[in-house]
């Protein structure tokens, strides 16, 4: 497979962009090889600068649930662009998208749009601190909530540790106000709340952690977290940037049967345009300016192009049929791969329209349970997958997505190819 043009573009990009990329994982540092510079996408496929075609399981990291360049979404966006891309004023389309989300998510009474998932979680934390008048935040090892300072922390060796910076430029004083717990550990959770619950502003958790493996949590664990936050007067912030309107209309809230205080969104609600949102109980959201003392603003927040793309996407999903089809297809796809690779110390984990290939015998529910040797196998496997015309995320910790454009015929062919390549890599395991 020729990669000359991708290589040349990346070399030029490195002269003017740090690492040649605007998000680190795109540099292929984990998997090696030449980062593919993508030129276009249509349906289930993307094409790179060298005109290589790939069946895409990256989906721009999740928002493209309808596939690339969905004709109806594109038509709606083009029509809006002709009327203007942004005005810096209130628009009817942002009210319509907000109303759609509020009607479909029982936990949300009011919502505010921002321009990224990071911004959504950052703002939710600020509101939580303002509402509770407490400073301490709890997050969980293996959950990624964007690159805001309070969340770029790492855990120490203890079961419950206070964060230390995991990025240059994050002050220790900021990181120290974030506590970090391991996932899937009720004892550590209860111990933390006994010791710190009364000074905790909020616990922040991904609905289903999907940036450090697909770590599907037990319902009992999520319900315990909800109960403990309520008992101690802390807020529960459910990060649904990935899972929101990806798992289904009700997202992870419906999946677990919990009712958080605040929810954050991104990805699917923008239909592929840059977007984020946070919402929750009216009494909490009313803390925000101009009604309350909590400041948050954004020049391009709720811009009409992103709102139009998001509403066009969500309206196509509203009757639930696409979700049912996606879940059935993904279940069939995952089962087909699993049947072919059984006995090879490999698992394919799936939920809704998300799947994850993990080179280890046992399916992990926590970051500490992910085998680094398995990740090394994925890194070697990734290059072979690209050469076979399939695009998977360039990191063994990242998950894959299918879209409405991935029909059974495409998935059957991909399952066969992936299974053969998985077995080939698994046979090198010593």
Write the layout of secondary structure elements.
Layout: H1 4-13, E1 38-42, E2 45-48, E3 53-56, H2 71-83, H3 92-104, E4 110-114, H4 117-132, E5 136-141, E6 153-154, E7 161-162, E8 164-165, H5 172-175, E9 178-182, H6 186-196, E10 200-206, H7 219-231, E11 235-239, H8 251-256, E12 262-266, E13 276-280, H9 282-285, H10 304-317, H11 321-341, E14 347-351, E15 354-358, H12 372-387, E16 390-391, E17 400-401, H13 408-426
Parallel strand pairs: 3-16, 5-9, 5-10, 10-11, 11-12
Antiparallel strand pairs: 1-2, 2-3, 4-13, 6-8, 7-9, 12-13, 14-15, 15-17
Helix pairs in contact: 2-10, 3-10, 6-7, 11-13, 12-13
Note down, in words, how this protein is organized.
There is one protein chain. The protein folds into two domains: 4-69 and 320-426, Alpha-Beta Complex (Aspartate Aminotransferase, domain 1), CATH 3.90.1150.10; 71-317, Aspartate Aminotransferase, domain 2. 37% of the residues lie in helices and 17% in strands. The protein has 13 helices and 17 strands. The strands form four sheets. The chain has an eight-stranded mixed beta sheet with strand order 4-13-12-11-10-5-9-7, sandwiched between helices. It has a four-stranded mixed beta sheet with strand order 1-2-3-16. Strand 10, helix 7 (219-231) and strand 11 form a beta-alpha-beta unit. Helix 11 runs parallel beside helix 13 (408-426). It is globular. It starts with a helix and ends with a helix. The model is unreliable at 156-161 (pLDDT under 50).
Order of H and E elements: HEEEHHEHEEEEHEHEHEHEEHHHEEHEEH
Rounded radius of gyration (Å): 21 Å
Oligomer: single chain
Low-confidence stretches: 156-161
Physical arrangement of strands within the biggest beta sheet: 4-13-12-11-10-5-9-7
Mean of residue pLDDT values? 94
In total, the number of strands is 17
**CATH domain class name of the largest domain:** Alpha Beta
| Largest sheet descriptor | 8 strands, mixed
N→C terminal distance: 29 Å
Architecture of the largest domain in CATH?
3-Layer(aba) Sandwich
**Helix and strand composition category:** alpha/beta
CATH H-level name of the largest domain... which superfamily?
Type I PLP-dependent aspartate aminotransferase-like (Major domain)
Count of the separate structural domains:
2
């Amino acid at each position: 497979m020729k990669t000359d043009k991708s290589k040349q573009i990346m070399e030029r990009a490195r002269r003017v962009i740090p690492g040649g990329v605007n998000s680190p994982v795109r540099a292929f540092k984990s998997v090696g090889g030449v980062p593919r510079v993508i030129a276009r996408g249509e349906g289930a496929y993307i094409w790179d600068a060298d005109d290589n075609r790939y069946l895409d399981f990256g989906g721009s990291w999740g928002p493209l649930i309808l596939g690339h360049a969905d004709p109806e979404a594109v038509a709606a966006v083009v029509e809006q662009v002709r009327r203007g891309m942004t005005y810096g004023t209130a628009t009817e389309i942002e009210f319509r998208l907000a109303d759609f989300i509020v009607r479909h998510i029982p936990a949300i009474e009011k919502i505010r749009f921002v321009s990224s998932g990071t911004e959504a979680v950052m703002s939710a934390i600020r509101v939580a601190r303002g509402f509770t008048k407490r400073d301490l935040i709890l997050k969980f090892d293996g959950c990624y909530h964007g690159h805001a300072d309070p969340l770029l922390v790492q855990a120490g060796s203890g079961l419950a540790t206070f964060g230390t910076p995991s990025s240059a430029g994050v002050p220790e004083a900021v990181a120290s106000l974030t506590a970090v717990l391991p996932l899937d550990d009720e004892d550590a959770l209860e111990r933390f709340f006994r010791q710190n619950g009364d000074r905790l502003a909020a616990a922040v958790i991904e609905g289903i952690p999907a940036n450090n493996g697909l770590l599907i949590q037990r319902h009992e664990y999520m319900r315990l977290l909800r109960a403990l936050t309520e008992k101690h007067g802390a807020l529960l912030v459910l990060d649904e940037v990935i899972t929101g309107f990806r798992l289904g209309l009700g997202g992870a809230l419906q999946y677990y049967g919990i009712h958080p205080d605040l929810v954050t969104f991104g990805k699917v609600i923008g239909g592929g345009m840059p977007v984020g949102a946070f919402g929750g109980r009216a009494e909490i959201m009313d803390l925000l300016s101009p009604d309350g003392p909590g400041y948050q603003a954004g020049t391009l927040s709720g811009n009409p192009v992103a709102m139009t793309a998001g509403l066009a996407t969500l309206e196509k999903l509203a009757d639930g049929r696409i979700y049912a089809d996606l879940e059935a297809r993904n279940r069939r796809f995952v089962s087909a791969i699993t049947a072919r690779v059984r006995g090879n110390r490999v698992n394919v984990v799936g939920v809704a329209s998300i799947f994850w290939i993990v080179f280890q015998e046992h399916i992990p529910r926590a970051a500490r349970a992910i085998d680094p040797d398995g990740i090394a196998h994925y890194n070697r496997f990734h290059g072979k997958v690209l050469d076979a015309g399939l695009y998977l995320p360039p990191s063994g910790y990242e998950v894959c997505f299918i879209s409405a454009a991935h029909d059974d015929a495409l998935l059957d062919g991909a399952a066969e190819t992936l299974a053969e390549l998985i077995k080939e890599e698994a046979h090198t395991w010593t």
